[in-house]
Every structure is written in structure tokens, then in C-alpha cells.
Amino acid sequence: MVEKPYPVISITDHDEPLEFVAHSPTLLHALEAANIDVPYQCREGFCGACRAQLNEGKITYNQEPLAFVREGEVLLCCSRPLSNIKITLL
């Protein structure tokens, strides 16, 4: 059986892309595990503090966020990538 590769997270202004491993529940967890400082408050999609620009790729939400999310943005605390993604931290 061929193992499916993990999605890759590329971040503007960061040299090394990250792999989103299966045991990471959200993009926020994956970034924190890589020691990338990301603002957040609620971790549940209520406040929008972890907002980032989604430049490329597809994500899915673990639960639908209550915070307003503009077209082309993503909340890192409650989402995970479905493909390789490129983001800009706001």
C-alpha cells in the first residue's frame, strides 16, 4: 500500500515549508509545533484572531467558524489543509 503524502504548508516570509502530519488537529497546532508564533485567542473559530490569507490550495474546517471569514482568508485554529497550501500570516 502506498502512503499518501502529507499536505505541505508554505508560509510567506518563512524559508522552510512544513508538513501537515495526520496527528495535527489544526493548522494552528502544526504552526505552533514548528515554533511559529501565531496570534490566537479562542481556538474554536469564535474570535477570528488567528486569521491568515490563503494564497493557494484548499482547506476544510473541523467545525464551521462563527467569526466572519472573508473570501481568501482562513482561520488557523479550526481548519486543516486538503492540499498543499500557501498562506500569509496577518
UniProtKB/TrEMBL annotation:
InterPro entries: 2Fe-2S_ferredoxin-like_sf, 2Fe-2S_ferredoxin-type, 2Fe2S_fd_BS, Beta-grasp_dom_sf. Its cofactor is [2Fe-2S] cluster. Keywords: 2Fe-2S, Electron transport, Iron, Iron-sulfur, Metal-binding, Transport, Ubiquinone. It comes from the Bacteria. Residues 7-90 form the 2Fe-2S ferredoxin-type domain. PANTHER family: FERREDOXIN, FERREDOXIN-2, CHLOROPLASTIC. Belongs to the 2Fe2S plant-type ferredoxin family. This is Ferredoxin. It comes from Pseudoalteromonas aurantia 208. The gene is yfaE.
